[in-house]
Amino acid sequence: MTTLSRPRTVAPQVGRSAPRRDGAEKVRGQAEFAGDIVVPHMLHGKVLRSPLPHARLVSVDARAAESMPGVVCVLTGADMTGRDPYWGHAIRDRPIVAIDRVRFAGEPVAAVAAEDEATALAALEAIAVEYEELPVVADVEAALAPDAPRLHEGPLRPGLFHGLGELEPLDGNVCYRFRMDRGEIEAVLAHADLVVEGEYTFPAVYQYAMETHTVVAHAVGDQITVWASCQHPFLVRAELAALFDVPLANVRVIVPFLGGGFGSKSYTKMEPITVALARKAGKPVRIQNRVSESMVTTRRHGMRCRMRTAMTAEGKLLGRDVECWFDTGAYADNGPRVTATGADAAPGPYRWEAYRVNAACVYTNTAPSGSYRAFGATHLQWIGESQIDELARRAGLDPLEVRRANLCVPGDELRAGGKPLDADLVGDVERAAAAIGWGEPKEPNVGRGVSVGLLAAGAHPVSTAVVRVEADGRVVVLVGTTEVGQGARTALAQIAAEEVGVPVELVTVRGADTRFTPYDRSTGASRSTTLAGLAVQRAAAQVREQLEQIADGEEIEPDAIPGLIAKRFGLAGGELIGHGEVAPQGTGSYAEGPVFWEVCVGAAEVEVDPDLGTVRVRKTATIADVGKAINPLLVERQDEGGTMQGLGNALFEEMVYDDGLLLNDTLLDYRVPSFEDLPDEMTCIVVENGDGPGPYGAKGCGEGSLAAVTAAVVNALADAGVPMNELPLTPERVWRRIRQLEEEGTWPK
Amino acid sequence: MRLELTVNGKAVAREVAPQTLLLDFVRDELGLTGAKRSCEVQVCGTCTLLVDGQPVSSCCYLAADAAGRDVLTIEGLQEQPGFERLERAFLDHAALQCGFCTPAMLLTVSALLRDGELTDEERIKQSLAGNICRCTGYRGIVEAVADLAGVHA
Question: Residue A7 has what pLDDT?
Fold first, then answer.
């Protein structure tokens, strides 16, 4: 943990709830998003998407469309010649536009660039496509059948940011496997007093960033400029450079404010097709998805899981056996990482004698699946934690007590050779339970649940930052972190202010522009405050040192800084520049990680209406175990946002597929939480133990609450008498389950 | 067709195609980009503008239907007296994150406050249910609006 030793002439800037640095421009509608960018001579692009989930492309005839007035060009599979048109950061399995086959309903088959949007849309209608339908691999079960049609022929080619070791060869429709083992699981299960087992289903979910994927691309010669709603500009840059065979520095990715991301804008999405279209058009092109298009651009993996957990009659947890299958859709997207992170989360942070996890990432004829906030943990935590509660019920023990007795403590090894536990989970779950009135009497049909989990966070630890002190004493931070709503520009400004010794109001954090901002690996996995924050801290400390040298023992008041710079440069110009870098200690491999374990601890109280099957969430509590809160109010707001998404995931969000076709592709049919879904009480407890690897002992937050709340709601409903093994907990599912329990004679509880 | 209307207190006249949506008209014709497009089916509310003081989903509202009317966008609202109070409440309560939905949220809140609709926390939640915010979890917005309305949340 870093502490400040230098005297300061300004009050602490870290640890206070400073107003957002981007607040005023956002409130006033002045914040610029990708869809607000207008480039001279810009054309409008529209994508023709396959209506079929699986088909051979017999022919694509764009001649009529190309001859329409106002249409500049049409990009089709026939243009995919001369260079390798396949992309994908994990597995390079995806063509820019379909070449000979479509593998999901919504796959781009062609793209039109036209002078206006209406013309582009009309031109889509004029493209004649002949399909020959192929058998549909609708879900994981169909994909794993011995005679299932194979979606990809292989061999699998790793993408630039695969990062998970050597790829195993494609096995049918399984593109990736992750296994973990400790002890003799079969022996433990065979001799345990209590074993619970079950099969579980987790739905495909839409992230719904309100700003849909939007890209403006301009490509002239070997120069590519892209304004994109992307979270990871440097990874997009690298993929575009590889795909279009130009040097990294020739690709400029500019990221304005993002209208939400939640993982949906991580890695590369609509950038390749927009760049390819702009190259062919010879003019800048904008492609802006509609919601129905963003839904099939990426989503959260649906998952099937089989789990067994064993405990002694006295309440000692013994072992867990997990098999899970992630539906990654037609292309891998971030599926391998989601699968590995899910496997990591599957045992839960308990002192097991043995566990075994077998996770598979499976191709199907549905839209590609990638990142969504707290991926992996959200998939598995509700299952593991519901089994702990079931064991507690069978043993007649308090679920909180079972956790207290079995949870890992700081320093415990979580996986062989990896980062040990860096959080006080027992303290965390006790706080969450207390916040919802654990142990107090309950009315009928009311239940309470807690849940504990961990999420491997931080991604790959590479971040750099530059801090400039301008001649007028203002501080500018250049960092590749994208402002997606999480408050990165505010938190990073506070860190720079603290180190330089100026009020945060004098600090501006610029948006990412790969031409000027130094490299930051990505914005996701709760890494920005921890890793970009550390880079900013180091860069800011460097300029502070320079200032101190110039001041030569004088105290540095903020308004004295212009004078100091003039003293250094001999006139009222010049600037001080600091550079900060974060690089991995070892190789940065997944096995050595994670950077930190993000805590996913929460509690909920629910009330079920047995006649209607509706579940009302009365109370939620989440723990933001952040080491050090750079901005406590923004930390709370992050947790609240995650809580609400967790409630959506637990209660009603589900992409409904029928034989490869998405049935609910608008917000009329796909419901997200509204104001009216707020719980009566929503508590976020910020825990600051200074145990993070980031600046001032900070570690990331903002994802854990989603996984924690989803699981806590499931457990609370089970506590009310309705154990469920399928999400979301729709009224129909809950009602049917209660009728089933009635028939079994176990309802009312 | 020729369209004449008032936008942010100023008379505006333009030739538009009859099918032009009000959202496209203010964004593309007038360069007022505070209003955003998202769901296109009147669920999310992020395209909300005030027409004769009433919130409408401008993504599903013909510009032609605003003929002769008074349209207020966030660019106009911020010029009105009392805006800074709205702004202060949203900033103090950290009632925004990505900011995509925020201008629409403020326009809706300003109309509800003017009409005295926000009498308690339940009414706040009900009245704002036509504006989705995916980031904040709503808690901060409810607190900011309760503060503005002078009710307990």
Answer: 53
Nearest CA in chain A to B95: A637
* CA nearest to A483, candidates B71, B135, B153: B135
Say yes or no to pLDDT of A219 above 70.
yes
Q: What is the CATH number of domain A23-31+462-583?
A: 3.30.365.10
* pLDDT grade for A8, boundaries at 50, 70 and 90: low
Point out the least confidently predicted range of A49-63, A156-170, A724-738.
Answer: A156-170
The domain over range B2-77 is classified in CATH as 3.40.50.1000: no
Query: Hey, are the CB atoms on A29 and B134 less than 8 Å from each other?
Result: no
Phi, psi of A386 (to 5 degrees): -70, -30
> In chain B, what residues touch A258 (CB-CB under 8 Å)?
98
pLDDT (average), residues A123-133:
98
- What the block records as the tokens of A401 is 């007590």
Pairs across A and B, CB distance < 8 A: 158
Q: In this model, does residue A9 exceed pLDDT 80?
A: no
A435 closest CA partner among A113, A94, A712, A65: A712
Closest in B44, B99, B103 to A667, CB measured: B44
All CATH 1.10.150.120 domain ranges of chain B, comma separated, are 83-149
pLDDT tens-place string over residues A367-383: 999 999 999 999 999 99
CATH 3.10.20.30 domain residues, chain B: 2-77
Kindly report the backbone phi and psi dihedral angles of residue A37, in degrees, each rounded to the nearest multiple of 5, phi listed first: -75, 125
pLDDT score of A749 = 80
Residues of chain B with Cβ-Cβ distance to A257 below 8 Å are 98-99
Distance CA A495, CA A546 (A): 17
Residue A588 has pLDDT above 90, yes or no: no
The ipTM assigned to this model is 0.98
Chain B: residue whose CA lies nearest to A635 = B94
Q: Is the dihedral of CA A521, A527, A530, A536 positive or negative?
A: positive
Q: Which of B73, B57, B85 is nearest to B12 (CA)?
A: B73
Contact across the interface for B38 and A211, Cβ inside 8 Å: yes
Residues B78-89 as b/e (b if ≥16 CB within 10 A, e otherwise) read beeeebeebbbb
Query: Tens of pLDDT along A589-607?
Result: 777 789 999 999 999 999 9
Distance, C-alpha A607 to centroid of its chain: 30
Whether the per-residue pLDDT at A5 is higher than 50: the answer is no
Q: Is A440 exposed, middle or buried (0-12, 13-18, 19+ CB in 10 A)?
A: exposed
The domain segmentation of chain A, as residue ranges, is 23-31+462-583, 373-459+591-744
Best to test chain A binding among B78, B120, B133, B135 (most A CBs inside 10 Å): B135
Q: CB neighbours (10 Å) of residue A583?
A: 11
- Which CATH number is A373-459+591-744 given? 3.30.365.10
Give the whole-angstrom CA distance, residue B53 versus residue A590.
56
CATH architecture of the domain formed by B83-149: Orthogonal Bundle (1.10)
Return the ∠ at Cα B17 (arms to B14 and B21), rounded to 5°: 90
**pLDDT tens sequence across A438-454:** 999 999 999 999 999 99
Rounded to two decimals, the pTM is 0.97
Residue B146 to chain A, least CA–CA distance (Å): 13
Overall average pLDDT of the A454-464 stretch:
95
pLDDT greater than 60 at residue A2: no
Tell me: the pLDDT tens digits for B54-111? 999 999 999 999 999 999 999 999 999 999 999 999 999 999 999 999 999 999 999 9
Question: Nearest 5°: CA angle at A112, between A107 and A114?
Answer: 150
What are the chain A neighbours of B146 within 8 Å (beta carbons)? none
Q: What is the Cα A262 distance to its own chain's centre?
A: 5
